[in-house]
Amino acid sequence: MQRYLKAVEDKKSRLCVGLDPALGEQRNDDVIAERYGDDMLGYCLDIINATSMHAAAFKINSQYVLFKLTVKELFKLNNAIKDEGCLSILDHKLGDIKESNQSAFYWIQKAGFDAVTYSPYPGNIKEAVIEAHQKNIGLFTLVLMSNPQARWIQKDAPGDYPPLYERISREATRAKSDGLVVGSTDNVRNLDLKRIKSSSRDDMIYLCPGLGKQKGSIDNIKKILGDNLLVNVGRSIIYDKHPGDKADEYKKIIQK
Fold this sequence. Notes:
Shape: globular
Low-confidence stretches: none
Oligomer: single chain
Number of domains: 1
Largest sheet: 8 strands, parallel, barrel
Strand order of the largest sheet: 1-2-3-4-5-6-7-8
Helix content: 40-55%
CATH architecture: Alpha-Beta Barrel
Order of helices and strands: HEHEHHEHEHEHHEHEHEHH
Number of strands: 8
Distance between the termini: 23 Å
Strand content: 15-25%
Number of helices: 12
Structural class: alpha/beta
CATH class: Alpha Beta
CATH superfamily: Aldolase class I
Radius of gyration: 17 Å
């Protein structure tokens, strides 16, 4: 929390830039510029250099980088983020039994990440928080995601009351999870936000994806969840011709 507050204060920003660096073979649109070829590390370093003055954090999507970049390259990437006074979050949605989680936290620490996103599906949130904190890694627990497919299990399951996301929020709070992942799309209603807020600590950090390509909005999130936010914007920034200007634009949108 102290490192988060320092980054927010130094940067005067609650923007989190999402690094989702797709190669041409992975997707037909929103891909690394042709001049980079398959130089994923170089592309990410240039994005960090262009946007870090406007961002408090970077969220690196493991689905894009873990099979491409080595641990040494990830360490270099995270050092560049930290040199700019920003936090580095691995968006991995980790979730497994204790021994597997321990192995993951070992490599996450070796790669130099500050925090990781965590899936509560295995049920061992408290155990995972303890293991992460022993490695000086923060844990952001998934509560209510931005994609509409999450509704049927996280909030709209028949007879599920209180909804699963609220029970997860309470358990993550008891377990001393550092933050919660709460989407900013219309999948997340005001009532959902109020339930999450009432079931979590005052010093909880809310990592909010969905602004940008997913057409999310943070007006109600700011009103209900408060100031402890990291609002993630990925593709709308990193694939823009002028990522620095775009990051500044979203920084100002969040500040409003």
